[in-house]
Amino acid sequence: MKTMQTFALAALFSATAIGGAEAHVTFLDKEATQESTILATLQLPHGCDGKATTEVRVKLPEGFVFAKPQPKAGWELEVVKGDYQKTYDNHGDKVKAGAVEIRWKNGNLSDDFYDTFVIQGKVSGIEAGTSLAFPVTQMCGDTVQAWDQVAKEGGDAHGMKSPAPLLKVVAGESHDHEHGDMAGMDMTGKTGMDMTGKTGMDMSGMAAAAPAGETVKAGDLEVSGGFAKAMLPGQPVGGGFFTVKNNGKTDDRLLSVTSPVAGEVQLHEMVTKDNVMRMRQLKDGITVAAGQTVKLEPGNLHLMFQKVKTPFKQGDTVPVTLTFEKAGKVDLVLQVLSAQGK
């Protein structure tokens, strides 16, 4: 009997130790290859002393560049920009500034649940064996938990109460995939049915749409220039763009968008002020005034594809159905371009 009690206590202490180790904010994958573009996935296991998490702020270290956050349904996004300490090469362009802090705001993640927060970025100019620290501030209303403790060089992080999440840089062959720009940011619901598992599908029962890139007319509206950006493998969120011209004498409004290749498609707006880029969902739609042209483009108005089943690849096509208040439904095909397209 004593032996059984001893085993039970040992198991309890072991479980407690494991639970404590996993109670910190950490990365799902704790290693990244030099000069590679990755999806850095932060795991948030709990709230603040039982309170729901309402905001998560992540400071980005030097050497993690060209960062773009993955939007989260129900949360607002802010991207704070600043100067890098060095100059980095981005497909031939010399870049001296970019995102230095990411903020997911005005959410409501109960202490009963676990969630992840994803940032796409490139690890550049960092020696193998180096650990990059990403200080995180977790806010739960008026309660704040800072995960920002970093061990001194050669020191041991074990035993720290609030360690910052670490990403260890390792040597190896880089797989810097062609990737999209998370709806054009310079800093990325319901389950839809995908009959083939591929983008560019021809769904039986759908109204025939014009070939990718061609102009589609509906009533007084002309919709043209549709395109999307290639995405990183495993990335579930992508962006879409097009132009709408209203040739009529009355205003119209884009109410919603659907696509068989995504669980949900949202209308978003990006606004930059005082070096902070903010993104918000436009639940009331997008107005297309009489005689005016509205352009959905990177860094401004755009479509946000959520829960994409197969990441968009250059050369693919993405079918969408636009629903306007007066013009009705319009079927459009978006051509998937490279990250540098348009």
TrEMBL record:
Keywords: Signal. Residues 24-169 form the YncI copper-binding domain. Pfam families: DUF1775 (PF07987), PCuAC (PF04314). InterPro entries: LpqE-like (IPR007410), Lxx211020-like (IPR058248), PCuAC_sf (IPR036182), UCP037139 (IPR021174), YcnI-copper_dom (IPR012533), YcnI-like_sf (IPR038507). Gene3D superfamilies: PCu(A)C copper chaperone, Uncharacterised protein YcnI-like PF07987, DUF1775. Residues 1-23 form the signal peptide. The keyword Signal applies. This is YncI copper-binding domain-containing protein. It comes from Rhizobium hidalgonense.
